[in-house]
Amino acid sequence: MNAGGNAVAEADSGSYYQAHQKVYPREIGGRFARLRVLAVWVLLGLYYLLPWFQLHGRQAVLFDLAERKFYIFTLVMWPQDFIFLTWLLVLAALSLFFFTALAGRLWCAYACPQTVWTESFLWLERLTEGNRQARIKLDAAPWGLEKLLRKGSKQVLWVSFAAWTGFTFVGFFTPIRALASDALGLSLSPWELFWIVFYGFATYGNAGYLREQVCKYMCPYARFQSAMFDKDTLIITYDAERGEPRGARRRTAARGAGGLGDCIDCTWCVQVCPTGIDIRKGLQIECIACAACIDACDSVMDRIGYPRGLVRYTTQHALDHGTTHVVRPRIMVYGTILALLAIGFGVALALRTPLGLDVIRDRNSLFRLLDDGRIENVYTLKILNKSELNRRIDVTVTGPGELTLDPAQPSYSVAPGEVYPAVVRVRRDAYQPIGSETIQFHATARDNPRVAATHAARLLAPSR
Amino acid sequence: MATPPTEATGNRRRRALALGAVLWASFLAACAGTMFFFAFVAPEDLLGNYAESDHIDRLGVYTLGFFGLWCLGALASALALYVHRQISADDRPGNSRETPS
After folding, report:
1. Is the pLDDT of residue B78 over 60?
2. CB atoms near residue A231 (< 10 Å)
3. What is the pLDDT of residue A6?
4. What secondary structure does DSSP assign to A82-119, as a single string?
5. Which residues, including other chains, have CB under 8 Å from residue A246's CB and lie 6 or more apart?
6. A140 in B contact zone (CB under 8 Å)
7. Measured distance between the N- and C-terminal CA atoms of chain A, rounded to whole angstroms
8. Which of A70, A217, A452, B29 could form a disulfide with B73 if both were Cys (CB 3.0 to 4.6 A apart)?
9. Which chain A residues touch B60 with a CB distance below 8 Å?
């Protein structure tokens, strides 16, 4: 019996469209399980607690859809700042590429909401239905009082957790404290209620029932992530060279006795897998790199006194007895683009002024000749105060020739978030210099001259 | 314990998977689309004179916008899938319409 892992792979590969079989992941402790639990706590902690933090008398992080304002701590973003959001999304996508090329599906294993919520739903399931064996038995058992109680309490926990999740989700988009009092007073607006139910239901369905099927059949990332892999990417793999031929043995048998490899075929790696695959068949698209099989195998190796790492994080090159190159062209290209974009984002954000200025020329007339020999152009200035302060904004104009403004020293008090429409007239000697020119409007906050914006406009004049 | 795959369960499963792919892809597109669209268009601009500016339920407009985009995306995905399946079926050996029987 010297069959390699591939022979096993062929033996039970059924139809692609076989009926779904429920996966009962066995719980396992270990280094990577602890890491994932930590990630779950940090990420879900952020998710559930962040909306409750207050800053400057308002919610610290709030994507206020009704007011069309995004508060991110001290930063206030307006629809005009949309470019930053797009930029951030591009950064996120590139980081995903970079880390995938470097270390494989880290995202899937530790950070994806699907993983994080599935983990917590599984935990609730264990709490009520017991461990893997107990769950399998319970599902097979006929309905009775115990099954009803266990399944019922699981549903109560799941539904409450999902409802809280949906509520928190809406709390990111509408002030959560008001939302909470509305919810307690049963006076939620229909849309808020709808989104709480919708998001809660999606969480319940995805984390409670669909689980690994989302990764296997729906997730586009799972399908294209292999394009970012190369032979130096960190993958989780079974060392077939060391493990095969696998087989059960006596506890007292010496290592390697009977020509057996290190794999004792205990199938723990299969039982703990949340996607229900056998890592010993090689790298598979279903593998979300959660490393549960590493923890499982390590604990078994410890118990029988073999060295750890029969299933481990490694690279294809290392497996082929080559050298792993962490720094390689792919990493350098992704890394450079990522670094440049991140620096650019930081600089742009730092230079962003909380003041916007838009200038619209009066469309009704090109220009007007005044009795004193000057021409006049009329403009509507749109002054946007993107800060959270009431601000007095002074407007000046510069350009070729001597320009005067009417009103003489325009100054406007603009409330936070207000777009103030101000009509100003610009006058100039009609024939000097000749023709139309580009002029610059400047808006400056009186309390802080560094808060300033400039916008160009055409000043039309008769040509001769 | 496991039910062996039959043609009926296979078809049901195939349909469920297709539905999942169509809904999920269009959901992602609708998320991005809603964000882009409403960054540039305020709900009150859409409603025009039909709504008093004080009484706009923006959340409602966003919701309808999101689901509208989701439906459109799902329709496009489903059509693409349908056409693709038809073409692949035509291309299958022995199934070609050009082959004289």
Report:
1. yes
2. 15
3. 37
4. HHHHHHHHHHHHHHHHHHHHHHSSHIIIII-HHHHHHH
5. A260, A261, A263, A264, A265, A280
6. yes
7. 100
8. B29
9. 190-191
Q: How far is CA A215 from CA A120, A301, B20, B39, in A?
A: 17, 29, 11, 30
Q: Which pLDDT score, from 0 to 100, does residue A19 have?
A: 60
Does residue A355 contact residue A453 with C-beta atoms inside 8 Å? yes
Q: What is the pLDDT of residue A334?
A: 93
Distance, CA of A441 to CA of A424 (rounded, Å): 11
Which pLDDT belongs to residue A4?
37
Q: Rg of chain B over CA atoms, in angstroms? A: 21
Q: A174 — contact with chain B (CB < 8 Å)? A: yes
How far is A462 from A435, CA to CA, in rounded Å?
Answer: 6
Identify all chain A residues contacting B14, using CB atoms and an 8 Å cutoff.
Answer: 17
pLDDT given at position A314: 93
Q: What is the pLDDT of residue A201?
A: 96
Cα–Cα distance between A449 and B18 in angstroms, integer? Answer: 59
Q: How many Cα atoms sit within 13 Å of A193 on the Cβ side?
A: 9
Cis status of the peptide bond prior to A433, with omega within 30 of 0? yes
A448 in a structural domain: yes
Q: Which of B3, B15, B40, B59 is best to mutate for the A interface (most A CBs within 10 A)?
A: B59
Chain A with chain B: Cβ pairs closer than 8 A: 65
- Provide the residue type at A79 as one letter: P
pLDDT at A137: 92
Measure A156 CA to nearest chain B CA, in Å.
Answer: 27
| Predicted structure pTM score | 0.81
Q: Is residue A373 part of a domain?
A: yes
Average pLDDT over residues B18-41: 89
Give the three-class secondary structure for A325.
coil
CB proximity A85 to B under 8 Å: yes
Is the residue at A132 inside a domain? no
Cβ atoms of A268 and A26 closer than 8 Å: yes
| pLDDT for the residue numbered A161 | 97
pLDDT digits (tens, 9 = 90+) for B47-77: 765 555 555 578 888 999 999 999 999 999 9
Contacts of A380 (CB under 8 A, 6+ apart): A359, A360, A362, A421, A422, A423
Q: Which two tokens stand for residue A219?
A: 């997730």
Q: Does A209 contact B at CB distance below 8 Å?
A: no
Across the interface, whether the CB atoms of A17 and B10 are under 8 A apart is answered yes
Contact A376, A367 (CB under 8 A): yes
> Given CB atoms, is B35 within the 8 Å cutoff of chain A?
yes
Q: Please tell me the total count of domains within chain A.
A: 1
Q: Specify if A406 maps to a domain.
A: yes
Low-confidence residues of chain A: pLDDT under 70: 1-19, 431-434, 464
Neighbouring C-beta atoms of residue A274, cutoff 10 Å: 21
Domain extent at residue A431: 355-459
> ipTM of the assembly?
0.77
Phi and psi dihedrals of A66, rounded to 5? -65, -35
